[in-house]
Amino acid sequence: MMAGVVAGIICGPLAGAIMTNLHGWLGLRDWQMLFVLTGIPAIGLGLFGWFWLTDKPAQATWLSPEQKQALAAALVAEPGKAHGGFAQVLRDPRLYIAGLVYFCIYSGSNTVSYWMPTLIRDFGLNDLKPIGMVTSLPYLGAIAGMYLLGRSSDRHMERRWHLGLTMLVSACSFALLGLAQGNAMLSIALLALGAAAALSAVPLFWTIPPAFLNAAGAAGGIAVISSLGNLAGVASQATVGAIKAATGNLYLAFDMIAVVLVLGVLALLIGIPARSLNERRNSNPTKEQA
User: Fold this and answer.
1) Is 228 domain-assigned?
2) Domain range enclosing 205
3) In the structure, how many helices (H) and strands (E) does the chain have?
4) Which terminus in the chain has less CB density within 10 A, N or C?
């Protein structure tokens, strides 16, 4: 997941440079040029995937015959519907609790990514280049946070409290933003810390679902959790926009996001107890402790 964070470090300054230097090029406005130039790599990657990726191991020209046979045998040996499968996963309430927790995490990380430039302008920065540089700060912090928190979580073989405390750091940082109004440096530091914590919470979160999902329904269960969490991309933006339109104050919206993150922590610690993850791990010794 660090690849996405590295992209955030690069794209912030790059977007500022594009919008500053290429306004009016080919008759397009700055934001139009940003969409065109950042869309070209995605289109190229999609074409590459269409022609290079395959549906079955037997179709993969880059695999040796032995590798094709080994993968085909592994796919056949995977547990199927006879062992419960996806239907059993859908009856597990932890699936929906995990979706709620991911919704809360994504509300924080997505809101920061979307509204950070607007908030930075409120700090007094109006030049697009400095704004682009400042927006890369949370991603720099997230790289360090992902590595250090992941290492600590693996060393202590613990997931829930690492994730919960990381979400609380993000919530506290967002809640304190309103008190730091007028102090640009402190506001930027709090925003960067809150965003870095929210981004660092994502890989920590994804260590938890595999600890309670069975092998047959893991893919479908992860899809359900991801779908529920991604609803935050619509709900959080609509809510933040409505709060800003009604009050003219973006800080109140970040207070709301802080509350959502705290609710996510409570749902995690109460709704997914450690013993349920341990039971799943003990039933499969190859699973690591949650």
Assistant:
1) yes
2) 82-283
3) 14, 0
4) N
